[in-house]
C-alpha cells in the first residue's frame, strides 16, 4: 500500500452514503457534505474511538488530527488499540487493520419542549466508519503528530520541540481515511405537538457557551517568554 | 429477572477493577470511586454508546440518565441499538442483551508543553462496560424517562407533560447497570522533561470554560409563563 499519496477526494464533493451512514431515524438531520464534516471534526478536542475487543465494544476518548481526508490518532505503542491495529514490526502488508468507529459530538443547546417526549439537544456530530491502520512511513508519522498538536491549538506544532527519535519510536499512529462518513445535526427550538402548545410550561432553548478561562502559565516558565499570538487569538 | 429491585451497592464503596477497567497506560489516572464516577456522569449532556453490529464497532452520541447504580438510554423502538438489544415483544427472559461500552468525557483544559510529545488535555472520563437490556417494567420505564429529562435539567421532568401511552409505546429504554466501571482523569500542568525546561516555548494550561448563553424562549410561548427557577439556577 502506498502511504504517502493523498486519496483523490475532490473538494466540495459529498461522501457517498452507505448502509451504515444512513440513519434509521431522523434522516433529514444527516449530511454528507465534506465541508460540514470537516468543520465539525476540526472544532472538536477529542473523538470517541470505538473498536471491538474479545467480541465486545470499547469506546475511548482520544485526541485526533486531520490532514485532508485522513484522520490520525496516536498512542503509546503499548496501548491496546494501537497494538491491536497491526504488526508492531511495521510490516504494513501483513497489517489487517482495526475496524473502528470514530465519533465526534458537539452539544450546542438544551431543547426544552412542553412535553417530556420532545425534549432534545441541539448538536452536531460526525461518525466515521473504517479500518484504522498503523502509519509506518516516518514522514507521514511526523505530519500526523504535527496535525494532532495543531488540531487542538492551530500553529502550536511549529512553536514546540518536535518529537525526537526516542519519542517517535514510543508513539504509534493510526490512520483512518475519511470515506464512510456522515454528519448529523439538530438546530432550532422544540417541536411540540400542536395540542400541547398552550400547556403552562416554559419552552425554548438553553444555548451552551464554550470559551476559555485565563491562561495558567507553567510556574517554571523561562523568563521573558510572552504569550504567543496563536493563544491570544483563541 | 427482577427489574425493580435496586442492586445492592453500598454508597461510598468503589467499583471492583476488572481486566477491562484497568488501563494499560497511565494507571495512576484511573479511579473506581463511586462518587467520582457519579459526578462525572451527572455533569455530561451526552454519552457515547458503543456496540457491535455485523462485527464492526458503532459509536453513537445519545442522551442518558442515571438512577442510583443504573444508567438508562432511550430511543425509538425502530432504532438500531434498541432493536438489537432484545425482543420487541418484551420477553425479558429471552433477551440476550446488547454488549455495550458507554463512555462520557469532559475536556477541562489544553495542556501545552515545551515538547510536542508532552502536549495533552486535562479531562475526566468514565467508561462503563456491560450488557444493556430493554426495560419492560412500565414503572421503571417512566422512572427512566424522567431521569433522562432531569439529567439534562434537574427538576424539569416535573414541569413538563409526561409521556402518554402512545409515546411510551414508541420509546424503547435500555438499562445498563454500573458494575464494570472506571473513571480516568488528568489535571495540572505539563510534564515536560527536565532537559526541556529552558526551551523558549510558552507552556501552561488553557482552561476551558463552559456556561450558558441567554435563554431563547419559544416564539409561541403561552402568555404569562415565567422562566422557571431550575433554569435561573443553571
TrEMBL record, chains A, B:
> One matching Pfam family, short form?
Pyridox_ox_2
Q: Which organism is it from?
A: Streptomyces longispororuber
Q: What is this protein called?
A: Flavin-nucleotide-binding protein
Amino acid at each position: 500500500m502506498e502511504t504517502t499519496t493523498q486519496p483523490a477526494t475532490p473538494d466540495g464533493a459529498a461522501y457517498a452514503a452507505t448502509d451504515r451512514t444512513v440513519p434509521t431515524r431522523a434522516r433529514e438531520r444527516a449530511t454528507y457534505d465534506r465541508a460540514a464534516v470537516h468543520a465539525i471534526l476540526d472544532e472538536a478536542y477529542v473523538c470517541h474511538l470505538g473498536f471491538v475487543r474479545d467480541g465486545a465494544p470499547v469506546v475511548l476518548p482520544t485526541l485526533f488530527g486531520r490532514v485532508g481526508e485522513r484522520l490520525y490518532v496516536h498512542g503509546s505503542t503499548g496501548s491496546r488499540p494501537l497494538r491491536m491495529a497491526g504488526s508492531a514490526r511495521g510490516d504494513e502488508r501483513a497489517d489487517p487493520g482495526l475496524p473502528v468507529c470514530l465519533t465526534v459530538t458537539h452539544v450546542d443547546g438544551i431543547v426544552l419542549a412542553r412535553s417530556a417526549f420532545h425534549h432534545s439537544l441541539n448538536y452536531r456530530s460526525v461518525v466515521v466508519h473504517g479500518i484504522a491502520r498503523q502509519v509506518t512511513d516516518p514522514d507521514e508519522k511526523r505530519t500526523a503528530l504535527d496535525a494532532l498538536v495543531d488540531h487542538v491549538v492551530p500553529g502550536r506544532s511549529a512553536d514546540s520541540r518536535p518529537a525526537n527519535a526516542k519519542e517517535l519510536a514510543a508513539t504509534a499512529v493510526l490512520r483512518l481515511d475519511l470515506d464512510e462518513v456522515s454528519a448529523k445535526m439538530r438546530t432550532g427550538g422544540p417541536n411540540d405537538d400542536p395540542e400541547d402548545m398552550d400547556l403552562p410550561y416554559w419552552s425554548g432553548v438553553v444555548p451552551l457557551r464554550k470559551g476559555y478561562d485565563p491562561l495558567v502559565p507553567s510556574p517554571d516558565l523561562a523568563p521573558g517568554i510572552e504569550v504567543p499570538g496563536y493563544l491570544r487569538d483563541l
